[in-house]
Amino acid sequence: MSEFLTVKEVARDLRVDSTTVRRWIKEGILAAVVLPHAGVRQVFRIRRSTLETLLA
Predict the structure, then answer these.
(1) How many distinct structural domains can be found in the chain?
(2) pTM exceeding 0.90
(3) Are the beta carbons of 47 and 3 closer than 8 angstroms?
(4) How far is CA 43 from CA 21, 30, 38, 55, 56, in A?
(5) Which residues share a beta bridge with 35?
(6) CA torsion through residues 56, 31, 28, 35, sign
(7) What is the DSSP string of 1-56?
(8) Strand 33-35 vs strand 4-6: parallel, antiparallel, or unpaired?
(9) Distance between CA atoms of 1 and 4, rounded to whole angstroms?
(10) By residue range, what is the domain housing residue 49?
């Protein structure tokens, strides 16, 4: 079990679209780590503990 989750994994667990998770990150609702990436979209990782706190 990894300490970090992808946007897709968080979206699945929360039963929302990945775009919603990305918006929450950008609005500061959900804390995430930004990974260096040369692509079009930013790559985020969310700590499992952050998700568990949000769900509590």
Answers:
(1) 1
(2) no
(3) yes
(4) 12, 14, 9, 22, 25
(5) 43
(6) negative
(7) --SEEEHHHHHHHHTS-HHHHHHHHHHTSS--EEEP--SSS-EEEEEHHHHHHHH-
(8) unpaired
(9) 9
(10) 4-55
Q: Could you give the CA distance from residue 1 to residue 10 in angstroms, rounded to a whole number?
A: 14
- Residue 3, token pair as written in the block: 């300490």
3: Cβ contacts below 8 Å, ≥ 6 apart: 47, 48, 49
Tell me the residue type at 15.
R
Read off the pLDDT of residues 17-56 as tens digits, 9 standing for 90 and up: 999 999 999 999 999 999 988 878 889 999 999 999 888 8
Residue with tokens 């990974």, as numbered in its chain: 35
Residue with tokens 């919603």: 20
Structure-token pair, residue 46:
């969310």
